[in-house]
C-alpha cells in the first residue's frame, strides 16, 4: 500500500498549459496517473491535452472530484497557487517550483495549520507509488513495487537509491521528495511517521543533506518512538565548502548542527543505520531488513 496517493487519486495540474506543465502532465498520464483537469486563470473553458481547463482550483475540484494537485507555477506566483489549493481543500498538493520566496512559504505554512491539505514541497520532485501513480517530475524506469519507503531531500540521488533498492529485490512502497527549499510542507519526520504507520512498508530509507535541522528532528523522533522497522539514512555534503549554498536553496554548508557530520552522529545515536556512501544504500537497507527478521 502506498502513502499519500494511489491508483484512484484524481489530479488537477495548476499551470498545466505552460511548457513544464504540458511536458510533465504528459509523462504522468503516460505512467497511468489519473489527471482529470488543468488550472490556468483566464483560460477556463478551454481544453489542453484533451483535458478541461478551469480558471481556478475550486471549479476544477467541483467538476472533477480532484483530490490532489501539482503546482507548475513560477516562484513569484507559486504561493498564491498553493494557497488557492489549500482554500479549495485539496487533500494533497505537490509543488515542484524551486526557490519560492521564504516569506511567501511562511504564509503558506500558516495557512496549512488546521487545514485539510498535506503539502509536499516546494522544490519537490513529487510522490511516486510504483505501478500506481506518479505525481511529480521524477524519472521512472528503475522503480518497482515493494516494501521500502523512500523520503528524500535530494532529487538526483533519489533515482540512484531507487535503482539500488530495486536491484536488491526489495522495491519501493512510495518515494517522496520532501522538498529542498528551506521552508516547505511535509517534513522528513512527518513522512517517516507515515511510512511507519503503513503496514506494507517494512523499512525506510532517508536521503538527507547539509543545511537545516530535519535530520536532527528525525533523530529526536526515533529516539522517543523506538520504531521496530529498520531505518537507513544517507547524509550527503560531507565535503562541501563551508558557508556556501550547494545545488539548491536548502543545502547550505555550515558548521555545527547543519553540517553532515553532526547529522550523522545524531542519527546513529538514535539507532538509525547511516550508509557509509551513496553506492551502498541498497545493500545497507537489504542487510537491515534481513537482520530484522
From TrEMBL:
Stored SMART domains: CoA_binding
TM regions (residue ranges): none
Keywords, ordered alphabetically: Ligase, Nucleotide-binding, Tricarboxylic acid cycle
Gene3D superfamilies: NAD(P)-binding Rossmann-like Domain, Succinyl-CoA synthetase domains
Coiled coil: none
CoA-binding domain ranges (all copies): 4-100
NCBIfam families hit by this protein: PRK05678.1 (NF004230)
Name of protein: Succinate--CoA ligase subunit alpha
Lineage: Bacteria, Pseudomonadati, Pseudomonadota, Alphaproteobacteria, Hyphomicrobiales
Gene: sucD
Amino acid at each position: 500500500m502506498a502513502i499519500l496517493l494511489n491508483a484512484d487519486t484524481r489530479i488537477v495540474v495548476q499551470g498545466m498549459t505552460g511548457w513544464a506543465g504540458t511536458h510533465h502532465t504528459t509523462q504522468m498520464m503516460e505512467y497511468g496517473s489519473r489527471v482529470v483537469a488543468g488550472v490556468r486563470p483566464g483560460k477556463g473553458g478551454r481544453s489542453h491535452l484533451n483535458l478541461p481547463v478551469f480558471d481556478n482550483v475550486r471549479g476544477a475540484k467541483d467538476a472533477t472530484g480532484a483530490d490532489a494537485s501539482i503546482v507548475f507555477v513560477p516562484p513569484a506566483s507559486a504561493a498564491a497557487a498553493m494557497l488557492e489549493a489549500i482554500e479549495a481543500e485539496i487533500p494533497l498538493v505537490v509543488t515542484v517550483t524551486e526557490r519560492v520566496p521564504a516569506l511567501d512559504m511562511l504564509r503558506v505554512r500558516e495557512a496549512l495549520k488546521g487545514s485539510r491539505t498535506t503539502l509536499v514541497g516546494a522544490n519537490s520532485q513529487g510522490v511516486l507509488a510504483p505501478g500506481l501513480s506518479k505525481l511529480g517530475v521524477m524519472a521512472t524506469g528503475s522503480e518497482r513495487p515493494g516494501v521500502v519507503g523512500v523520503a528524500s531531500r535530494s532529487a538526483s540521488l533519489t533515482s540512484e537509491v531507487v535503482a539500488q533498492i530495486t536491484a536488491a529485490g526489495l522495491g519501493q512502497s512510495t518515494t517522496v521528495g520532501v522538498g529542498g527549499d528551506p521552508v516547505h510542507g511535509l517534513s522528513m519526520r512527518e513522512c517517516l511517521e507515515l511510512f511507519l504507520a503503513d503496514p506494507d512498508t517494512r523499512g525506510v530509507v532517508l536521503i538527507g543533506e547539509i543545511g537545516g535541522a530535519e535530520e536532527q528532528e528525525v533523530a529526536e523522533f526515533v529516539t522517543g518512538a523506538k520504531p521496530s522497522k529498520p531505518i537507513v539514512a544517507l547524509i550527503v555534503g560531507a565535503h562541501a565548502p563551508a558557508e556556501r549554498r550547494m545545488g539548491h536553496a536548502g543545502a547550505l554548508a555550515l558548521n555545527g548542527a547543519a553540517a553532515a557530520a553532526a547529522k550523522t552522529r545524531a542519527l546513529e545515536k538514535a539507532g538509525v543505520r547511516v550508509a557509509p556512501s551513496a553506492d551502498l544504500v541498497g545493500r545497507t537497507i537489504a542487510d537491515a531488513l534481513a537482520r530484522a527478521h
